[in-house]
Task: structure prediction
Amino acid sequence: MITLIGKTLTKTTEAQLGQSLLKIAQEASVDWQFNCSRGTCARCRCIILEGADYLSEVNDAEWDRLGPDELDAGYRLGCQAVVEQDGNIKAMNKTYF
Ligand code: FES
Result:
């Protein structure tokens, strides 16, 4: 299962393998902030509270956009982090502003 915490709404839904956190949030009607969907704006930034191991590896766009301290703290870009394995995942959308 995947729990997504948007700006005001939280939903738990089936994790869909191969889908980004942003896509799953949109399908679940969670108010997850985004703009570009391509890994450049960071509006979709989120912190992974549980299940980081079930997500894809941090990709080039995330290395470029997020600082090492953010990556260490467990931040990802929702439009780039893809669910790769079944398991419990919890992510909270945390924009910079
Ligand atoms: S929506 Fe722009 S970085 Fe993800």
